[in-house]
Specification:
The complex is a heterotrimer of chains A (113), B (124) and C (234). Chain A contains four helices and no strands. Chain A has 113 residues and is mainly alpha-helical. With 124 residues, chain B is mainly alpha-helical. Helix content of chain B is 73%, strand content 0%. In chain B, 27% of the residues are buried. By secondary structure, chain C is an alpha+beta fold. Chain C folds into two domains: 101 residues, Ubiquitin-like (UB roll) (Roll), CATH 3.10.20; 127 residues, Alpha-helical ferredoxin (Fumarate Reductase Iron-sulfur Protein, Chain B, domain 2), CATH 1.10.1060.10. The longest helix of chain C is centred in the C-terminal third of the chain and has 17 residues. Classes of the chains: A mainly alpha (113), B mainly alpha (124), C alpha+beta (234). Chains in contact: A-B, A-C, B-C. Chains B and C meet through helix 1 and helix 3 of B and strand 2, helix 5 and helix 9 of C.
């Protein structure tokens, strides 16, 4: 009955959660304190042109998408879905996650082009 | 046999008669759901960046009003609670502070409230 | 002597269906318990169904919800509730068989795979001294299998596959004190998406347990063991 990946799944959820405390904190601080704010398109582009900021945002994007979708899985598991449904769910969420991440990266790329 | 008495997902938020740890769970679940919804909303808002400067600037203009600012404060509280309680849950899973988990919840709640108030003053 | 109004959940598949609440006016004294009231009411209404056995909080059979909280009816003092109306309902998260009786089979079925031994060697009271002709006290495990923890657990309400606090606590006891059982196998068994990882640390089980089992704490113990094993590569 045991699923030896479940402990790892939880460790990843906890680790990304902890990472998000830092990354999300930096994300909010960077946005709040960016020169002039991010209230216009040009300011956003200038903000993201800083390579450190871009790195932060990409890291934050990947981490938050993972943590959010793993959280969705946890909620659905709480409704009692069996193992085979869970395996399908993980595949679906993985695809959704990759698409969300790529979409975000694409927005950055378009802005900086 | 029929059972109208088994709980359901609504039981997650039924905190009547329950202790602090149960409230902590209910809030963590509620904030988690709100944050997932916000994530998709945020993706939607950032999509306006693809449509060019007028679209993004117009959307920013739409969102620069007191109602949105209050919602943003609510969001900050939601983020703070979920993050700080998440740390509490991580500690508990390592069997740290389990005996004092109720006190830890109150600290999390208070810190979330205080830091939200700080953010409010920074925003005004 | 006080007068208290009792509202008691009634349900019998096929006859009292859908469920309803019957109201009784009851006279209580200083030491009257909820179970005492049920026993008295049954003399007038023999169809009132509930479970009871030891009447002193050792067997766990009289677990039910009184004024919305899970308790053992045999030790719940009516005057101590402090209300003029008392609502009595069956446990949650288990199918109702009749009135205040729920089907405990699903509960036991979660329990048996864990293979819990009954007699423990740890946590004797320091002041316990057996009488002269008795070599040693026999200490039993705390859990009286009343089902209260399952009733208060938020996950047990939505996930029928969840092992639940009682079974997980029993598993933790096997791992803490193997007593000849296969502790590593039991640890592997709880490492499951419907095992200890479905718990969200609401800790209501530990708050409601009438027998000091602390299932929530024991589940955290299991998770720490699994996390450390994984991280340290054991």
């Amino acid at each position: 009955m045991s699923n030896e990946n479940e402990t790892s799944a939880w460790i990843l959820q906890a680790a990304t959660g902890f990472l998000l405390v830092i990354l999300l904190g930096l994300h909010i601080l960077a946005n709040h304190f960016s020169k002039g704010g991010l209230l216009s398109y040009d300011q956003v582009v200038r903000h993201l042109s800083n390579p450190l900021i871009l790195l932060l945002e990409v890291a934050f994007l990947g981490t938050v998408v993972f943590h959010a979708l793993a959280g969705v899985r946890a909620i659905l598991l709480d409704t009692g879905i069996p193992r085979d449904a869970d395996e399908k769910l993980v595949k679906i969420l993985a695809v959704v996650g990759v698409l969300m991440f790529l979409y975000g990266v694409w927005i950055f790329a378009r802005l900086l082009a | 046999m029929s059972n109208s008495r088994t709980g359901s997902t609504k039981g997650w938020f039924d905190v009547k008669g329950k202790h602090a740890g149960y409230v902590a769970f209910a809030l963590h679940r509620a904030t988690g759901i709100l944050l997932v919804l916000y994530l998709f909303l945020h993706f939607g808002v950032l999509t306006s960046l693809l449509a060019g400067p007028e679209a993004y600037n117009g959307m920013i203009h739409l969102m620069s009003n007191p109602v949105v600012e209050i919602l943003e404060l609510g969001l900050i509280f939601v983020i703070l609670y979920h993050g700080l309680n998440g740390i509490r849950l991580g500690l508990m899973a390592l069997n740290i502070g389990v005996r004092r988990h109720e006190a830890m919840f109150w600290i999390v709640l208070a810190a979330s409230g205080i830091l939200t108030a700080v953010a409010a003053t920074a925003m005004l | 002597m006080d007068r208290v109004t009792f509202k008691i959940f009634r349900y019998k598949p096929g006859s009292i269906d859908p469920p309803r609440y019957d109201t009784f006016e009851v006279e209580i004294e200083e030491h009257t318990t909820v179970l005492d009231v049920l026993e008295k009411l049954r003399l007038d209404d023999p169809s009132l169904t509930y479970r009871h056995s030891c009447h002193h909080a050792s067997c766990g059979t009289c677990a039910m919800r009184v004024n919305g909280k899970e308790v053992l009816a045999c030790v719940t003092n009516v005057r101590g509730l402090g209300t003029s109306e008392v609502v009595v309902e069956p446990l949650k998260n288990a199918p109702v068989v009749s009135d205040l009786v729920v089907d405990m089979v699903p509960f036991y079925e979660k329990y048996s795979p864990v293979d819990r031994p009954l007699i423990r060697k740890s946590e004797f009271l320091p002041e316990s001294r057996p009488p002269e002709d008795v070599e040693d006290y026999t200490r039993l495990e705390d859990c009286i299998e009343c089902g209260i923890c399952l009733s208060v657990c938020p996950v047990a309400g939505s996930d029928e596959r969840y092992m639940g606090p009682a079974a997980l606590a029993a598993a933790a006891r096997v791992i803490q004190e193997p007593r000849g059982k296969d502790a590593p196998a039991i640890l592997r068994m709880v490492d499951d998406e419907h095992g200890c990882w479905r718990c969200h640390a609401a800790m209501e089980c530990s708050a409601a347990c009438p027998s000091n089992v602390d299932p929530g704490g024991l589940i955290m113990y299991l998770r720490k063991r699994l996390i450390l094993n994984k991280v340290l590569g054991r």
